[in-house]
Amino acid sequence: MSSNNVIQDESQLSADIPNEQVLKWYQNMLTVNIMDSIMFEAQRHGRLSFYMVSAGEEAVMVGSAAALAAKDVITCQYREHGVFLQRGFELKDFMSQLTSNCNDPGKGRNMPVHYSGKDKVGVHAVASTLGTQIPHATGAAYALKMEALEDSTKEPRVAACYFGEGAASEGDFHGALNMAATQQCPVIFICRNNGFAISTPASEQYRGDGIASRGSGYGIETLRVDGTDIFAVYEATKAARRKALEDGGRPILLEFMSYRISHHSTSDDSSAYRSSEEVAQWKTPTNDPIARLRQWLEHKQLWSESKDNETRTQIRKDVIQELKLAEREKKPALSAIFSDVYADLTEEAEAQRQELKRIMSKYPQEYDFHQHVGGLGGL
Amino acid sequence: MSRLLRPAARLAASTRAFAKVPAAPSFAQRAAFARPVVFGSFQCRSYADNASGVKEYTVRDALNEALAEELEANEKVFILGEEVAQYNGAYKVTKGLLDRFGEKRVIDTPITESGFTGLAIGAALSGLHPVCEFMTFNFAMQSIDQVINSAAKTLYMSGGIQPCNITFRGPNGFASGVGAQHSQDFSAWYGSIPGLKVVTPWSAEDAKGLLKAAIRDPNPVVVLENELLYGQSFPMSEAAQKSDFVIPFGKAKIERSGKDLTIVTLSRCVGQSLTAAENLKKKHGIDVEVINLRSIKPLDLETIVQSIKKTHRLLVVESGFPAYGVSSEILALTMEYAFDFLDAPAQRITGADVPTPYAQGLEEMSFPTEQLIEDYAAKLLRL
Known about the structure:
The complex is a heterodimer of chains A (379) and B (383).
Chain A: H1 19-44, H2 58-67, E1 73-75, H3 81-86, H4 91-98, H5 118-121, H6 133-150, E2 159-164, H7 171-183, E3 187-193, E4 196-197, E5 200-201, H8 202-205, H9 212-217, E6 221-226, H10 230-244, E7 252-257, H11 276-280, H12 289-299, H13 305-328, H14 347-362
Parallel strand pairs in A: 1-2, 2-3, 3-7, 6-7
Antiparallel strand pairs in A: 4-5
Chain B: H1 6-13, E1 46-47, E2 55-58, H2 59-73, E3 77-81, H3 97-101, E4 106-108, H4 113-125, E5 129-133, H5 144-151, H6 154-157, E6 167-171, H7 187-191, E7 197-199, H8 204-216, E8 221-225, E9 233-236, H9 238-241, E10 253-256, E11 261-265, H10 268-284, E12 288-292, E13 295-297, H11 301-311, E14 314-317, H12 326-337, E15 347-349, H13 360-366, H14 370-380
Parallel strand pairs in B: 3-4, 3-5, 5-6, 6-8, 7-8, 11-12, 11-14, 14-15
Antiparallel strand pairs in B: 1-2, 2-9, 7-13, 10-12
């Protein structure tokens, strides 16, 4: 898109983007944005311990996820709610995790925004450790490559990995890119360069030309893209996926340039290290990904002020409704504290489980086990 | 006696000459300009002259056979690490595997522990069963975040939907003549992590049976081998030579039965303890029971307690640092579960609380020796 959010040469667009799909993208971007603002406030009200918002990066997540295939394998950092949403996570799934209730696939074990979505949307469980997901994607891609060699009838798949420009300073990033290049793994490394690693600006994160310049050093084809333009993000990711599957597989690096409009997390106050004027200029229709897409839709007569207000109100209602419902759900069964440490419960864990049950049975007034599924019986 | 004074105490306790440390196979130096070099002969397995079908295997051969059998049995298994393919492994444990299974199953990696460990874990989370070789566990420090935060925790954190069937293996612990950064024991590090299983083979049978069990186990398993044992030969029973031989985790092996003292030990210290036990028998007529832990997580507390009920005395021997170690754990568990059966305070012999020195004399003082074990046992028994 040009700076006034018009696509000059529409022939460059893939043929497979019907208007309904673009509207769905917009709806998803809005949903991420509204969910973020509501949950940020909910954290301030003490309803959850932590939250991370992704304002400014909605196009990067939704656009890239839209260009990947449903069966591709994805590893994320922690600011990729848009990826989960675009791939089929529902508000109920988000709220179940954020309130750690019994419907959370992670069984209430993880801090908020650490979604576990391998079964539902093909996204590995989110980890707090920075950068570990990057070599995992290389490994997943290696497994996919082996799968393709064994069974050529299967649709070839890629792995995709999201990380910030700050995480790209971790050793894991370099190890992962080098391994992917030497093993020629079909993996797309997607860097969300949002300008900040908590308070550290990109200018202090690296001296070179961003993350993209590192790709050529590893022998990896690389593209740097405007991350606030969802069409550019979509087309770049689509081209990357095609290339990643050529010649038996190869890695591709994408660097999406955007701006972290929000604070790093609920534990951060970014006014301490950047000016409100700086932030404000990223909220304009030239820079904000949602405003940009909205303008495009309005040019195309696909959207209007009233539709926008109506949709926002509806999403806000839905989010609040799902949050309330999720808060009312029971917490995961007490047995979840011991299970899944190993594939089978160990003797020691079993002994501890029985002992805990004995103590809880003996002193029921000391424990609030009724909020858990099955109460004491769930242990 | 103060624990911190132990190295000096050792010196005093061993005025008799140290048993000469055998010319040890040196550590394969990892230098930017040189390929790793393995000294010491590569021993081949040979027939023992008896009719029972028992053969002599080096630990290296046993590990090699275990890997070959598992690669053969399951196409999801693959090996990766530095120098494992073309060079046959820095310690030749993977000898011949590249030729037999090809470069898709036996993969040489760049020198990037966090990269290839992460790759292996990512592949495991996607359904393959990688065997990740560390040239030594000293280098695994580069990727311990991946081992602990990714491999050990993902099953739990994903809510049970992402198992990580992976085996980490390589030499660990006391080596010879290689200084502080190449000669240390990480058993306690990995042994403390929920989600990991940790095994410490001593003999050739241990090595084969435990490694095969590790590869088949659906959980992440850390196999802590020992460089000084690779070239050592052990009898391997006919049953252990078969491809279906595995050793269950969490079951210690009583290597030598006795009634007067229990020595609980692991890895290379098992052999040292057995020699000390024989000497104690010869010199004092004492019967020492030697328990080879085989796995430290899960730990076979039952066997230890049963033995203490019989002997009423416990000595733990290990080569790790003294603080917060395997022996600390066993002594603590003994306090909890077997205190009433002890006739004397339980004791331990460990590595010294110093970075391993290079100078031979200092190095010898830093780790358990057969003489030291013998002397401590004699003291514990008031001989």
